[in-house]
Amino acid sequence: MSQQQRALLDRLTAACGGSYPPDVRRRYFISGPQWAAAYPGHALFHAPTRDPITYQDVIREYARIGIPCWATHDTDVIPTETLLTDAQWETVDDIKKTLEQHGLRCSMVTTETFHHPVWAASAAAEAPEVRDYAARRLANTVDIGHRLGASYAVYWPGTLGYLVQGAVEETQTLRWFADGINAACRRDIETAARLGRPTLQHCLEAKPFEPQAEILLPTSDAMLAFIASGLLEHSEMVGLNPEYLHELMWGAAPRAALARALIAGKLWHFDINDGYRLKHDVDIAIGLVNPLDWLNVLVLLRSHGYNGPFNLDYKPPRTTSNYGVFAVSFPTAVDRFITLWEMAGEVLADPIVTEATNALKAGGSPASTHVNDLVAANRELLSLHELIAHRIFQILVGQHRGRVYSL
Ligand code: GLT
Ligand code: MN
Ligand code: MN
Questions:
Q1: Is the CB of 350 within 6 Å of ligand 1?
Q2: Is residue 110 lining ligand 1, measured as CB closer than 6 Å?
Q3: Is the pTM of this model over 0.85?
Q4: Whether 155 contacts 205, CB under 8 Å
């Protein structure tokens, strides 16, 4: 039965066409998180729908698909109790061996500071012993990152906030949070010098709500302000890991949020996924909800030479089986990303978009500097805005290559 169903899945996936071979997929700086592939489908209202899988399974399957990089929380593979003991290094070394065997590299490490009961009052809790433990965990993740050859560390302070008002003093909590990042950067400078490696790029990731109701650093813009606040000892080592859906969740235009990170020189790492505006963190795979917006996001990133990782931080839906995670979910997500990236190149090279954009920038040669002449000189030209949007739609659906719908 399930063999027949797998055969059907494989046949229909192949019938979709448009998939890229693994060596083509490996040309892109795409990373697959351990936690995304291993997500068993659980949530507050949901029992798991998939069986547990190991890091060996995930790394082997990523390699087969052509996902070149792997990312992990410190606790995805190593139990919390084993962290900060000598025993952790056995697992780290085994992960390293497995990555090498399969030709993958570890791009990013992140510390789990939201799931375990020790973080009930966040990693910037009132109790000094909890903050001290947090600093040791963050510093330890830096060392694990160096051992695995990573270049990025990510921080998602999703518990930095509150459910009920009054108990948490915001400025104090933010100072304590900065102490943790400072501890990680200090350790990074020491470890990198000892190993002769470059320091990591430390990337802050915002989310406007979940699991706390009110979050102290809810958006990428709040993170930029925090980086520039003077609380960080090494603000030059700290940048952003925006997540596409986390910006949509507060109602932002993701492309504008990314533009603000770009002009600050802080767009270093990018979590790619999809979902709905002003709703919870559904972590749908890239391009399944907002392909047109995604195309425009990638036009922006391509035109600014973004060369950081694209991290597949999504969750395969609960209806997808263990088999489907690697047979359907990851390869199709990667392929939609590559297609959108290549289309973004087509938008940038499109003669119609280029000529229209240049004409807009040249302006309308007004007869005088009088306000009415400025309006008159640009009136017809400005219709090009809508024409550019139409052209980008055509590129999205392939009409620029002659695809027609005949009646
Ligand atoms: C968690 C969160 C993600 C973050 C991960 C990094 S943790 O899965 O939902 O958006 O990127 O810590
Ligand atoms: Mn994320
Ligand atoms: Mn998310």
A1: no
A2: yes
A3: yes
A4: yes
